[in-house]
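R.M. (postdoc): so does anyone remember the format we settled on? I'll just put the structure tokens first.
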């Protein structure tokens, strides 16, 4: 045989399995030597997990949680409603009190102004009693002033024949001794503004009709007895 035939061709062995290039390495739970075949690590078995996007913790009842949440919301809503009703009532009372105080201030201011004009009304009454206001420009002025004050709430009282009222009238003279006194003479009119008495009336008090009838009956009985 020739020299070329005596030399054999080299044999090449191809192994497709992966060889760990390191001398010793830790792969998973296996330790391999250099040149040893590295087996793929075992994958953990896939078990049932929580549902994606569920958001609920395991072990908590969904129905119980919803019931507790509903009770909490109902209780808080009732408390807020009660607070709102209380605040509304307080605000309504505040508005009424402010309006009442404002009206009282206005009435007091009007009464103060009208009180300053009572002397003018007295002069007009005396002029009217003397016949000075029967005609002419002064009568027109007096009527306009009186009408304006009446529209603002001024009222006069104290006329002959009215029952005597000690809260409105001031008696300066008294004739008779009856229990039903009436006004027999008006010396000065009284005025009030709404419920406020600006001035008491100066009057003379006499016996009422009932007292006069009783007195006449007593005189008649006395006359009959004398006969």
């Amino acid at each position: 045989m020739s020299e070329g035939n005596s030399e054999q061709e080299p044999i090449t062995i191809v192994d497709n399995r992966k060889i760990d290039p390191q001398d010793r390495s830790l792969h998973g739970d296996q330790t391999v030597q250099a040149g040893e075949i590295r087996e793929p690590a075992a994958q953990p078995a896939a078990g049932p997990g929580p549902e994606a996007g569920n958001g609920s913790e395991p072990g908590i009842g969904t129905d119980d949680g919803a019931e507790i949440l509903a009770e909490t919301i109902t209780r808080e809503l009732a408390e807020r409603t009660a607070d709102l009703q209380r605040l509304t009532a307080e605000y309504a009372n505040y508005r009424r009190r402010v309006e009442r105080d404002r009206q009282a201030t206005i009435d007091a201011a009007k009464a103060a102004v009208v009180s300053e004009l009572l002397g003018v009304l007295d002069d007009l009454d005396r002029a009217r009693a003397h016949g000075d206001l029967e005609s002419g420009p002064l009568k027109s002025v007096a009527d306009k002033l009186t009408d304006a004050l009446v529209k603002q709430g001024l009222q006069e009282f104290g006329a002959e024949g009215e029952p005597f009222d000690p809260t409105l009238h001031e008696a300066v003279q008294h004739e008779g001794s009856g229990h039903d006194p009436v006004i027999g003479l008006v010396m000065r009119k009284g005025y009030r503004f709404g419920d406020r008495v600006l001035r008491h009336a100066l009057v003379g008090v006499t016996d009422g009709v009932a007292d006069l009838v009783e007195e006449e009956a007593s005189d008649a009985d006395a006359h009959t007895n004398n006969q």
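R.M.: ...and that's the designed sequence above, right after the tokens. Also worth knowing: The chain has three domains: 64-116, 117-152, 156-227. The two ends are 206 Å apart (CA to CA).
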